[in-house]
Design brief:
The protein has 255 residues and is α/β, with parallel strands linked by helices. It has a single domain, classed as 3-Layer(aba) Sandwich (Rossmann fold), CATH 3.40.50. It has ten helices and seven strands.
Amino acid sequence: MNWMRAAAVCLFVPALMGLASGPDVPDVAPAAEASCPAPPEFVAHGGDLPGLASAMAEKRGFGVLAIGSAAMLGPTGSLSDAFTHRAIEFFAASRPGTVVTLAARNARGALASEMLTTLRAELAAHPYPLVLWQAGAVEALRSVSVAGFRQTLAEGVRLIAQAHGSLILIDSQFSRLMQSKVDVAPYQVVMREIAGQPGVVLFRRYDLTRAWVDTGWIDLEQAPPAERQKAADRLNECLGRALAVLIGNEAGSVR
């Protein structure tokens, strides 16, 4: 397996521009907001993340762990281009004085069960108030047991809660091609069910990217080859902005 382990990246940036939602995110110009359209239900406050709230209340820097498959990498295969990296950068920018350290642990073709081992080791070594966990796509492609997938995520939730952290699950990206070959629905159901637990929230990447495809705003599979890289960059940036807003809304007004 080709593992990609990123060095921790400290993010401390001065200002947030782009998509915004909720009272705790800085206002942005309408034109900038329109550049990354996201229906409010995809970024609205959906639950409590006590680990993140505690870290914000302590007014100290804190770490975020991002785990998942190659889907967590940017369009060029670089972690710095990944939407998770951009999300933390945008989130830090929306909270002046907040220093956030991002640690990314990604592996091409990694199953959630394999990432669980990584999660266990990382939590034993470092405190992470927030974990971003992308899952579901590889499981669908390999027809992994849905029950086993549920057990894996449930164990991850237990480990994160035991470490006093919070979890944002990230589901798969919408793809017509993938949808025509595999059934992702059972895995999405599991992720929604797990996200109903305390300390867990779901970033609905599948629904958000499908909405963008349905409206014709951005569609990687239909983009001309010459425009595909640009479209992929825009997609990752806007996913990052949407995820940053979700994190900010979940962090609430704690400063």
